[in-house]
Amino acid sequence: MLQRYDHTKYYYIGARSEFVLSNFLFSFSQGFGGAGFILSYPLAKDLVRDMDNCLMRYSHVVAADQTTMSCVADMGVNLTPLEGFHQIDLRGDISGLLSSHPKVPLLSLHHFDMVEPIFPNMNRSQSTLHLMRAAKADQSRILQQTICHYRRRNWSFSIAWGYSAHIYERIMPRSLLQYPIETFQAWLPAPGPPFWPTPPVHRPL
Predict the structure, then answer these.
(1) Are residues 127 and 179 in the same domain?
(2) CA distances from 82 to 13, 74, 200 (A)
(3) Which end of the chain lies in a sparser environment, N or C, as judged by fewer CB atoms within 10 Å?
(4) How far is the C-alpha of 32 from the C-alpha of 12, rounded, in Å?
(5) Where would you find the membrane-spanning parts of this chain (predicted)?
(6) Going by C-beta distance under 8 Å and a sequence separation of 6 or more, which residues neighbour residue 129?
(7) Structural domains in the chain (count)
(8) What pLDDT score does 199 carry?
């Protein structure tokens, strides 16, 4: 995942929240700490040198990840977004989100205790163990979405490796199938759309 980056340079790598309001309240330039973020060694080393001064400058900031973002920004470094981190500022059934995971390794799932179990008829612990069984077969591909069509029958398939399979009895464009199905709810009530474009949950499955 990190081989593309020069380890001798400053890098602040992470992901924004799925929930637009969280980004608005904190920052669209922040790597959310629950999902996790990465600091290159040179950046972390130089950040430590000025840590006391930085903490004083941002003593009014409550969230540690926002403080980190602010201190790093003062050093001239902005967030480098990386897919695979998941803050999960969502509630309810997140299967629609997990079933559309991009073709990158799954790095984290935060707020897992705030959402419904990701497999039916299982509790959260059982669901996690069930997913890990698939991960043992090929951890690098877990959840990654593959879309294909069987044109003889006009079927479309959306497969989240080790997790779910959606079969549609008609040819559907990949541009639509790659969107998360809106099975989830927003973390908090907010005006306007709370996340990226989503098709309606009632579309044929």
Answers:
(1) yes
(2) 6, 21, 27
(3) C
(4) 11
(5) 20-41
(6) none
(7) 2
(8) 61
pLDDT level of residue 130 (50, 70, 90 thresholds): very high
Mean pLDDT (the chain) is 91
Residues 71 and 104 in one domain: no
**116 C-beta neighbours (distance < 10 Å), count:** 15
Which is higher by pLDDT, 130 or 186? 130
Structure tokens of 84? 């695979």
SS3 assignment, position 117: coil
Q: What DSSP element (H or E) covers 147?
A: strand 145-150
103 located within any domain: yes
Dihedral sign of CA atoms 124, 126, 128, 130 in order: negative
Regarding whether 156 and 118 lie in a shared domain, the answer is yes
Residues 6+ apart with CB under 8 A from 83: 15, 102, 104
pLDDT at residue 118 tops 80: yes
Residues 6+ apart with CB under 8 A from 133: none
pLDDT at 196: 55
Domain match, 101 and 172 both: yes
81 three-class SS:
strand
Interatomic CA distance for residues 10 and 69, integer angstroms: 13
